[in-house]
Amino acid sequence: MEQQKTGKFIAEMRKEQGLTQRELAEKLMISDKTVSKWECGNGLPEISLMLPLCEILKISVNELLTGKRLQSSEYKKNAEDNLMKLINEKEHAKRSLWLGIIAFIPAFLAGITLIMIAGYFDLEVWQRIVLIVIAVLTIAAGLTVAVVLEVHSGAFECANCGKRFMPKMGAYLAGLHTATRRYLKCPYCGQSSMCIRRFSLHEETEEEK
Ligand SMILES: [Zn+2]
Q1: Nearest Cα residue to 190 out of 166, 160, 164
Q2: Residue of 199, 195, 88, 102 lying closest to 152 (CA atoms)
Q3: Which 3 state secondary structure label does DSSP give 182?
Q4: Cα 167 to ligand 1 centre (Å)
Q5: Predicted pLDDT at 8
Q6: Which CATH superfamily is domain 3-70 in?
Q7: What does the alpha-carbon distance between residue 118 and residue 116 come to, in Å, rounded to a whole number?
Q8: I need a surface site. Which of 69, 104, 167, 176 has the fewest CB within 10 A?
């Protein structure tokens, strides 16, 4: 979805309603900073705010997401596209993360088993070495699949400026991390910080934060 287009459209429609950013923010009980952020194209309104926002701006959610007034003929197609994009993006991210974990576990267990066999059984040295090499390769393969899927499982939010972005594979692997944060350089403000993992490039509802 094009955040820039939606942002411009919000600004346009707000002015058409004769509202300032502050007045619109007050009606939605949010800060005017948030409205300004949307209008600059830095993030979409969270889903719970979309309906009240559209009501105030006298537009449809569909028009909001498309970023323009729609004729009735385009309307249906755009509505479906927008809805599916919102749903798919998040589902896809969650699925990738789980697939990554699932791919890693059997490879890890197989590797550990081989190492145990190499350690406990009475084997020739070369047999132990072969087993350990296979074990390490198996674990490495599982880890690679897990990491590739994990990188595709969503966005990170800059701790400095709050914008969301998809990290590059190299930076992702090099970054120090915890379960929910990773040290990455933000492509928007250029600052490196412990960025927070998010399942979507767009804003989420308060409960998910
Ligand atoms: Zn930033």
Answers
A1: 160
A2: 199
A3: strand
A4: 12
A5: 94
A6: lambda repressor-like DNA-binding domains (1.10.260.40)
A7: 5
A8: 176
CB 98 within 8 A of CB 149: no
Query: Per-domain residue ranges for the chain?
Result: 3-70, 88-151, 155-208
The beta-strand segments (E) located in the chain are 155-157, 164-165, 181-185, 192-198
Compute the distance from residue 165 Cα to the ligand 1 centre, in Å.
9
Ligand 1 centroid to Cα of residue 194, in Å, is: 10
Q: Output the six-digit token pair for 44.
A: 């979409």
In tens, the pLDDT along 10-58 reads 999 999 999 999 999 999 999 999 999 999 988 888 888 888 899 999 9
pLDDT confidence tier of residue 208, bands split at 50, 70 and 90 = very low
Expressed in angstroms and rounded, the spacing between residue 170 Cα and the centre of ligand 1 is 18
Handedness of CA 108, 141, 176, 154 (dihedral sign): negative
